[in-house]
Write a structure and sequence with these properties.
With 198 residues, the chain is α+β, with helices and mostly antiparallel strands. It has seven helices and five strands; from the N terminus they run E-E-E-E-E-H-H-H-H-H-H-H. Strands 3-2-1-4-5 form a five-stranded antiparallel β-sheet.
Length: 198
């Protein structure tokens, strides 16, 4: 049975298959994490190759046949990766946000899609990419129903900081400037150790 529908997707990963084909892993608004096999994907002439690169957001008509997902046509796209890759800190934070999505969002959740889309967009103008990365990790864990700051072994200053940060939107967090970079690095390490399970 064939199902045709429109959806939005963000590319998480791209893998070459043989000499011609490729597979992309995407997180879609309607069905969560999906794998799309693209025959002769390394030689496409009818769509820009950058659409198939990580960080790219696109709207497309998709066809689901059994457990296979195929791109029928791309309506619009934005290659956010170009802007993120201009700064090594933004690229590292973006890479980690993609990996957090890969590990912590195996299921469909439109809220996670919106969080991912906003995080990557505002990362391009973020003053402190690590802060946005921390907020993304907190919010995706919260959306999964697993966030409990009290079990993270935080001191009062760290706890208050994270509690205040959770009240910020991604847009607001992208404009925050903090001089204490050591605090950010320490919090980031603690959160990754406690919240991102291998």
């Amino acid at each position: 049975m064939e199902t045709v529908y429109k959806d939005e997707a963000i590319v998480l990963n791209r893998k070459f298959v043989g000499e011609k084909d490729l597979t992309i892993t995407v997180y879609t608004k309607k069905s969560g994490k999906e794998s799309i096999y693209i025959q002769n994907g390394q030689y496409l002439k009818n769509m820009p190759y950058s659409i198939l690169s990580p960080f790219c957001w696109f709207k497309a008509v998709l066809i689901k046949i059994k457990d296979k997902l195929i791109i029928s046509e791309i309506d619009s796209y934005k290659q956010i990766g170009y802007y993120i890759s201009q700064d090594i800190e933004k690229f590292e934070a973006g890479f980690n946000i993609i990996n957090f999505t890969y590990k912590l969002a195996p299921h469909q959740d439109e809220r996670i899609f919106i969080l991912l889309k906003k995080s990557l967009y505002f990362l391009t103008i973020s003053k402190l990419p690590k802060l946005l990365e921390i907020l993304f990790l907190l919010k995706i864990t919260y959306l999964n129903g697993e966030l409990d700051l009290k079990r993270l072994n935080l001191n009062n200053k760290e706890f208050d900081f994270l509690k205040g940060l959770m009240g910020k939107s991604i847009k607001e967090a992208s404009q925050i400037e903090i001089e204490n970079v050591e605090l950010l690095e320490s919090l980031r390490s603690k959160l990754i150790r406690e919240l991102v399970r291998e």
